[in-house]
Write a structure and sequence with these properties.
By secondary structure, this protein is α/β, with parallel strands linked by helices. The protein contains 4 helices and 10 strands, in the order ββββββββββαααα. Helix 1 crosses helix 2 (141-157). InterPro entries: Fe-S_cluster_assembly_SufBD (IPR055346), SUF_FeS_clus_asmbl_SufBD_core (IPR000825), SUF_FeS_clus_asmbl_SufBD_sf (IPR037284).
């Protein structure tokens, strides 16, 4: 199962539960957030391993600007009968303004002793060294930031198998961020 979640609400709370019930089953969830203005988005994702030799991952990417706020609650639970299971949680957020905020709470609950389980989280702004590198290759500041944001989201957008849906998703991201004008001013506005 692969799930891509999206929302354009002003305030939203979404909960997604994945129960892996059969041996050698897999569940992958790839939520992507683009939160702006004073929007608030709370995403809770729970991954339950109930059978042996299962695999599951939750990989979240978010881009926030203005006074936006996101919260990620991720929980991977491996029951005692789910030996040899593999679980991974990841939440990475790029802040495009100093007033944007993101809270990440990845958690693991492991009851089995022969498993592989890990989690990671990061929240940060665009790395100035990346902008400098792209500028040294001839990219203007705004285009460099655009490429960095697109590259940041690419590990998840590349999971969309249908090209029409992939293109529609990328266009929706672009339209959301172009609301305030052209030339990716959402990247540079502070």
């Amino acid at each position: 199962m692969k799930v891509l979640k999206g929302s354009n609400s002003v305030k939203a709370s979404v909960r997604c539960d994945a129960l892996i019930l059969d041996t050698i089953s897999r569940s992958d969830t790839y939520p992507t957030l683009q939160v702006a203005d004073e929007q608030y988005f709370n995403f809770s994702n729970y991954l339950y391993h109930y059978a042996p030799a299962t695999k599951g991952e939750i990989i979240m990417r978010g881009v926030l600007k203005d006074e936006a706020h996101s919260v990620f609650n991720g929980m991977a639970t491996i029951q005692k009968y789910a030996q040899n299971s593999d679980s991974y949680l990841s939440d990475h957020v790029l802040l495009l303004s100093p007033d944007a905020r993101s809270d990440s709470i990845p958690s693991l609950e492991i009851e089995a002793n022969q498993v592989k389980a890990s989690h990671s989280a990061s929240v940060g702004q665009i790395d100035e060294d990346m902008i400098y590198y792209l500028a040294s290759r001839g990219f203007e500041d705004v285009m460099a930031k655009k490429l960095i944001v697109e590259g940041f989201l690419e590990p998840l957008t590349s999971q969309i198998a249908l090209s029409d849906l992939h293109d529609k998703f990328l266009k929706s991201i672009e339209q959301k961020w172009h609301r305030r004008g052209n030339n990716y001013d959402w990247i540079t506005r502070r």
